[in-house]
Amino acid sequence: MLPEFKIAQLRHFVWVAELKGFHYAAQKACRTQPAISLSIRDLENKLGADVFEKRSTKSTMTELTPFGKHFLPKAKELIAHHDSISQDMMLMRNNKSGHLRLASVPSIACRLLPNLLSKFVADSPDLHISFYDDNSEAVLRKIEKQQVDIGIASLPHGHEHNNILFTPIWQDEIGVVCHNENPLANNSELHWQDLHDQRLISNGTSRLLEETEAAPLLDGSQFYISNMLSLIAMLEAGIGITTLPRFAFPEHNKTLCFIPLKTPHVIRQIGIVQLKNSSLSPAAQAFADFILKQGAAQQ
């Protein structure tokens, strides 16, 4: 059977060797000299060989045996490896290092996450983050396949993701987005029937209208555009109008406007998604706790 070394014994051995005496090693270890002697004897029993020469009454110096000289660099290597792993785990526990895999819907990714992540990593310069943005269904799939640790998304109506734990944080309302020169832009709010004469461009968030009285609008949609950049370009060109959650609207865009849809009044819930009955990594748990604390302030 292979010997099982105790790190404390290895440290005692190295200190005795480097300091040339049990007395000095005992002082460094804040132990008694007999305790250090017992520790070294136990180590020698495990190794099956002496690591120190028998001390002469004529000298207070402690010398290594040939076996001890060979073992000394190995002991230092074991201690260094142990300390490196211990430090890594401590840093990961305290969210100072590690790897966070995060996925989010684009609206939160663009509107809220830059500020949140900037604050979160300020005290964690060694934390590596892999970030993916996609629609809610894609985020949920990444969670289920364990491709990411944590996600930020909404749960689709009638979804079948029973293995997903959802913690709501933010909510935003659905509105109509159109060109500033569109006649609809003069309204402070809109009813879904006001949109009948408009060319509707549906998108990934249009499903939020499916179970409402505005569902007939989707049947008459001439365009479907999944990419947000392409959708915005089409709207800026005046090709049509669309519906979007407020967070998804490009707030600094001077060409487009957002008009709240009051009938039906649709609210989207967004929050943290993770696998049920599965513990998060220290970094993911720290980030979840952080956005739960900070999220309400970002509304």
Automatic annotation (TrEMBL):
It comes from the Bacteria. One of its GO terms (molecular function) is DNA-binding transcription factor activity. InterPro entries: HTH-type_LysR_regulators, LysR_HTH_N, LysR_subst-bd, WH-like_DNA-bd_sf, WH_DNA-bd_sf. Keywords: DNA-binding, Transcription, Transcription regulation. Residues 5-62 form the HTH lysR-type domain. GO terms for cellular component: cytosol. SUPFAM superfamilies: Periplasmic binding protein-like II (SSF53850), Winged helix' DNA-binding domain (SSF46785). It holds the Pfam family LysR_substrate. PANTHER family: HTH-TYPE TRANSCRIPTIONAL REGULATOR YBHD (PTHR30419). Belongs to the LysR transcriptional regulatory family. This is LysR family transcriptional regulator.
